[in-house]
Amino acid sequence: MVIQLHTHNNCIKQLSLGNFKHYMLKEIYETPFAIRKTYENICDVDFLKIFKHIKDITFIGCGTAYNSCLIGNELFKELGYNTVCELASNYQVSKEISKNHLHIIVSQSGETADCLKAAEKIKQLKGKLLIITNESKSTLTKFADYIILSKANKEMAVASTKTYCCQVFIFAYIYKVLSNKNYKLNIIDFSNKIENYIKNLNIQDIVEQINSLDKIILIGKDIDYLTLVEASLKIREIDYIFTLPIYSGELKHGTLSLIDNKSIVLALNSSNNAEKLKTAINEIESRGGKVLAFERFLQNLEVDSCYLPIYSIIPFQMISYYVAIERNLNPDMPRNLAKSVTVE
Ligand code: AGP
């Protein structure tokens, strides 16, 4: 099967599905290779120079790209920058932009209208702009002072999977370089590890338990919560299930009223510290709700914590794919959505 898609410059590209039934699954499996290619493309960039005089960073994106910005925002905050993360559709530029302020816009397509508008505003005020995109010739790159290309190759499925992982990888890698200027990554080991991880994921029991639900709550803390923002978007987008990511400590401030003996809550605790979600899990179970723990996928992984969000998201991407299959939905083309949103 070959899907035809119109790219922004109106040419038609065709990419073969190979042995896969859908692009979404193929693209999840392409993640390790995409990360390797991305690394090869950025390993010689002088990030120390780019970030030398930077004090403030604003991350901007839409949808999944915004969700990867949330991870970048969290990591760079740890490095001591003043960071803020903005939805491109809600971006309001200040009266002036200082020389020490870097704006980072992330966009898979580089054609998202809200991102283009934000870029235009930033450049009108002569702000410094770093663009992270998958498309080297996209309109967004024309506004850039610096461009970082994620080398995820063409992403055909509407749902962003491998590109999200590459975007998170870029942020985590820069974070490591800025923390230690002599940082070296063994990319072959790194990508092999992710490849084995994907091959050995067994998510069938979770798919069976959630595929008939009409709402799902996801709980986590710290960076896990940010991963769940993306996980829940993926399940909404592909499976048409209403999902709600909740910071675990917030459950008791309102959302607990949704829990009953039919509820299933997905819990992510990548730290493997059982105490972390204990209270929230007790709150759910004592109301008859069931908690499905995702840390089982992350056990015995020896990876730097900044790269963990890549591992954490993949089971959710897989689950959203297989639930769509169970529901007889086309995971590559969810209803009402387009790959690239070129209207504001
Ligand atoms: C991702 O699964 C979505 N299809 C969507 O949220 C997307 O990430 C968003 O529209 C932004 O697109 P962009 O990365 O091309 O700017």
Describe what is shown at a glance.
This protein has 344 residues and is an alpha/beta fold. The protein has helices at residues 23-29, 31-42, 47-50, 63-78, 113-124, 162-179, 187-199, 204-210, 222-239, 275-285, 308-326, and strands spanning 2-6, 12-16, 56-61, 82-87, 101-107, 128-133, 146-149, 215-220, 242-247, 264-267, 290-293. It folds into 2 domains: 40-187, Glucose-6-phosphate isomerase like protein, domain 1 (Rossmann fold), CATH 3.40.50.10490; 201-326, Rossmann fold (3-Layer(aba) Sandwich), CATH 3.40.50.10490.
Report the CATH topology name of the largest domain: Rossmann fold
**Proportion of helical residues:** 25-40%
What summary fits the major beta sheet? 5 strands, parallel
Quaternary assembly = single chain
Spatial strand sequence of the major β-sheet = 4-3-5-6-7
Task: Describe this protein's structure.
The chain has 344 residues and is α/β, with parallel strands linked by helices. The protein folds into two domains: 40-187, 3-Layer(aba) Sandwich (Rossmann fold); 201-326, Rossmann fold, CATH 3.40.50.10490. Helix content is 40%, strand content 17%. It has helices spanning 23-29, 31-42, 47-50, 63-78, 113-124, 162-179, 187-199, 204-210, 222-239, 275-285, 308-326; strands at residues 2-6, 12-16, 56-61, 82-87, 101-107, 128-133, 146-149, 215-220, 242-247, 264-267, 290-293. The chain has a five-stranded parallel β-sheet, sandwiched between helices. A four-stranded parallel β-sheet has the order 9-8-10-11, with helices on both faces. It has a two-stranded antiparallel ribbon with strand order 1-2. β1 and β2 (12-16) form a beta hairpin. The two termini are 33 Å apart. The protein binds 2-deoxy-2-amino glucitol-6-phosphate.
